[in-house]
């Protein structure tokens, strides 16, 4: 199936480093559609849905913000910390929307495993099914995310 010019332009934007160092696709050579399809399939194999995952990410971020950049106990074996930077970050998809540059780090105290994300990451997963490409600065592996944020 032939790719639309819009999809080609979007992939070029995601591969460039104009918005984020190294680009949103990082070193991943797969087409954008393959990256998204693979990650959505992994979420499904893990028995979760995108709304469940992103709702939990927002919940953890909101609770962690209360700690004013200190670690917050979320539940029995989960803690999180938010670091905020100034300025908004636009979504690379062609629609209106900017997101605060907050970085959430959630850690399982029982395993030591942690994962980090930004508000833009949550939006891109929620609206576009995009966890970023392999090798990108804020790539989130779906399995790692599910392992950390769900008890």
Task: Give an account of the 3D structure.
The chain is of the alpha+beta class and 151 residues long. The protein has one domain. Helices cover 39% and strands 22% of the residues. The chain is built from 5 helices and 4 strands; from the N terminus they run H-H-H-E-E-E-E-H-H. The chain has a 4-stranded antiparallel β-sheet. Helix 3 (50-65) runs antiparallel to helix 4. It is globular. 25% of the residues are buried. The model has no long low-confidence stretch (mean pLDDT 93).
Sheet-strand content, in percent, reads 15-25%
Domain module tally: 1
- The total count of helices amounts to 5
Note the overall shape.
globular
- Portion of residues within helices: 25-40%
Largest sheet: 4 strands, antiparallel
The gyration radius over C-alpha positions equals: 15 Å
- Mean pLDDT, to the nearest integer, reads 93
User: How many runs of DSSP E, i.e. beta strands?
Assistant: 4
Query: Structural class, from secondary structure content?
Result: alpha+beta
Distance between the termini: 41 Å
What's a concise summary of this model?
The chain is an alpha+beta fold.
Secondary structure elements and pairings:
Layout: H1 5-15, H2 32-45, H3 50-65, E1 72-75, E2 78-90, E3 98-108, E4 114-118, H4 119-128, H5 142-149
Antiparallel strand pairs: 1-2, 2-3, 3-4
Spell out the key features of this protein.
single chain; 151 residues; alpha+beta; four-stranded antiparallel sheet; 5 helices; 39% helix
């Amino acid at each position: 199936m032939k790719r639309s010019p819009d999809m080609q332009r979007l992939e070029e934007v995601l591969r460039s480093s104009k918005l984020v160092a190294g680009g949103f696709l990082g070193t991943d050579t797969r087409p954008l559609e393959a990256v998204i399809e693979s990650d959505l399939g992994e979420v499904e194999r893990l028995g979760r849905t995108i709304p469940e995952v992103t709702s939990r990410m927002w919940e953890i971020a909101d609770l962690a913000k209360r700690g004013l950049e200190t670690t917050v106990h979320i539940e029995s074996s989960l803690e999180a910390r938010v670091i905020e930077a100034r300025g908004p970050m636009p979504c690379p998809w062609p629609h209106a929307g900017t997101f605060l540059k907050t970085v959430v780090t959630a850690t399982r105290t029982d395993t030591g495993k942690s994962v980090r994300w930004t508000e833009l990451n949550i939006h891109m997963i929620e609206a576009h099914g995009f966890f970023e490409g392999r090798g990108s600065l804020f790539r989130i592996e779906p399995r790692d995310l599910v392992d950390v944020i769900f008890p």
